[in-house]
């Protein structure tokens, strides 16, 4: 029946218990037969998936997911628990992976990480021209094929009629897959029937009815425009014949109902083999990997056909009073989020769900009815808390587990050992991780995460932590997703351990890198990942590329990463002498080539170079303060900034930024800054150029607003310039001005408006002593400053000032 449906799973379990077959055959890749006994291992906890990948191209992979409520998993566990032989009979993964390979010149086939990874996609999730379930539903008078499927099939109890364990109310289902995604129990006549040779009884009745319905649909619509099914079904018939010779007719097949008529068809062995002749083939390896409920959900990108795996798991685990227990679970979640939900709410929600089911003519309240009841009763009509229920309960973040005895590439085994040593357990739910690199364990965790990112195994993503640009702390966001298993298998080509694989990958990237900035970024990543053996190859590539690259923009893009790498190397006690030498050389070349490069630029080019000037300024600050300090570098860079600030041919945004950087570093006097601003805003300067200077000097999040608040002369200059712009030119500069001042904090904008409204002499009129600061009063009120001192001493843990001491 349905690939992932609790009602379907119970029906399959009841059918197997009634039929007691001598062997069980399941739709799946036969290379996985050797892995089937692992399903009985106590350490195996669904959801899990069979992962098949091509040995020569591990990124070409397919998944066969199974949850605890999947009929295939139920059939597999029943067979193992009862000592009944169980096998997979679908087309081998060696063929299916090769069939999906791109034709010459056709480009690359979809890979596992692109949301179309699975054998289930290739086999059951491509929508045929005719949707058989929709045809059956419309024939029965339903406008929703999923609701029909659930009412007629999923809601049936194993004993007939409707039960309490069905699933309803979701847009889930594999009706767009192999006709219904249904699974039939087959056996009997010719080994290819729908169970007709058995006394079906109540437990087998649904399968016989579905087989008859699918037979009629196949007669009317043929293969549903899915020619590949003919190949798969030919292989399944061959396997079925082989098993019948070994075990007799008492064989049960768990497969898509769409395939049942084809399996029951009487064909010759020669005809079936002819369909398989000439199929392409690759070498494939299979293993079990953990899966997640979220990856079973259709909206996650993997089309497994269900939107509510958490709800389905609840129904499968709780066969009695599922609605009452579900509402109790929802109430517990909402209470944990500090929402007021009482027992009375639970009772009323259950009653409302049952009433809605009756009004809608449904045999049981399903997810649609329960969700509507939760929204109305527990969420007071709001979708905000309902979204939490959807994420935490209806979908859920359950992550399966596989035993250590499951086959795995050596890299995966090394990663698993390292994770355990560092106490980093893979979890599907996203969580934050803060690291203090002065601690050995945290430093090792950081190296592991950076090495995995270098291998494109993005288990963790770095985020800006509380330390900002500090070097001793890192913040990460961790989330282990099933497709990372494919990434690990793919990365296995680089080595058998995470360290050796990351080193080999870094050396390869260094040889292939074309841009200088890419090589410097790689050097930084090597230091972060603790890959000293890769640094010589990276340094050779860096030196060769830097020697021939004369583009100042490229040099400016490359220097910041080198400066950061030197800082990280200091924190991690890494020898960075070679990096320091290259960084100093790049900085010298930038100082020589930057002034000429800043002339004759258009607006976009000037803005790009402004960002590069800022980045180089920060990098030189790191180089000047680090252990590999270059003698005189800061002075040479300051001289460059002075040239940029004073040269009329340089774009206004760059001149303004250069002046601001010098002012912030205390290397430009306030009087000189005011003079430069006066020149830039003089009447002879075109308004657009003046606005660009203002944007460079006071724009962005660089604190320009506070600078204008606390320096009355600069604010007066800007105010006078704005007032003097002709009306016909004001609209030309308005976009630049809006971009500049919109970046200020709201409080800063309000203060600037108030100061401009008061006028430049407002502050001086209110006090005689000292110079007015921003129009708010005298420059220093010693009495008020002394009053703050005791509080500051208390905060800093300093002893009180002795009585009579000078302030």
Automatic annotation (TrEMBL):
<feature type="compositionally biased region" description="Gly residues">
    <location>
        <begin position="158"/>
        <end position="194"/>
    </location>
</feature>
<dbReference type="InterPro" id="IPR043737">
    <property type="entry name" value="DUF5682"/>
</dbReference>
<feature type="compositionally biased region" description="Low complexity">
    <location>
        <begin position="761"/>
        <end position="771"/>
    </location>
</feature>
<feature type="region of interest" description="Disordered">
    <location>
        <begin position="154"/>
        <end position="198"/>
    </location>
</feature>
<feature type="region of interest" description="Disordered">
    <location>
        <begin position="761"/>
        <end position="781"/>
    </location>
</feature>
<feature type="compositionally biased region" description="Basic and acidic residues">
    <location>
        <begin position="110"/>
        <end position="121"/>
    </location>
</feature>
<feature type="region of interest" description="Disordered">
    <location>
        <begin position="102"/>
        <end position="130"/>
    </location>
</feature>
<dbReference type="InterPro" id="IPR050458">
    <property type="entry name" value="LolB"/>
</dbReference>
<dbReference type="Pfam" id="PF18934">
    <property type="entry name" value="DUF5682"/>
</dbReference>
<protein>
    <submittedName>
        <fullName>Uncharacterized protein</fullName>
    </submittedName>
</protein>
